[in-house]
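Appendix B, example 12.
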Amino acid sequence: MIDAYLRRQLEGPLNRCAAALDRPIITADRITAAGLVLGLGSALAAGLQFWLLALALWIVSRIADGLDGPVARRRVRAGGKSSGAGGFFDITADFVVYGTTVVGVAVGASAQFGAPWWPFLLVLLAYYINGTAFLAFSSIAERTGRTIDDGRSFSFLGGLAEGAETIAVHSLWLLLPGISWQIAVVWAAVVAVSSGQRIIAGYRALS
């Protein structure tokens, strides 16, 4: 919901960080890979009930996710090639991290607090529907010449739940694991509404 605003506000700081990281050994794909490994580490730490470690790894993982794009664009402006592979790797890594984090929190919260599994299953279902909607739209929009260019590799449809909200909610249930399943119930409903928005908006945009 606020991703477009945050991208405008963070563009300058992220570009400055990208300039500082602009070394031959540091590539956008390697930053993406680092974010993936850190995200998987966060999920593992949550499953083992090391909640603060999981939170720290999650936040650093998402910082890495915010830096790979600016680094890639900086390299392209300097004359490098853009094959699309980096964008594919980035979105795939995001889905892996989001999904495993949900599972990690579910495992940890159920073991330590007796939390039920069904709220986390609802979140995964909502993620599945949401991801299907915007990835299908991006593919068809590209083929039909109706892309939405906001600087990212895919044509993203806006919605109630976007990247910033996801980062905030995942951080919240790592901070408050004792009520993580209640947070998951609310979050699943929010993502479900966002999925409905994207389905309707995507259909109208392609009609």
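The chain has seven helices and no strands. The CA atoms of residues 93 and 199 lie 23 Å apart.
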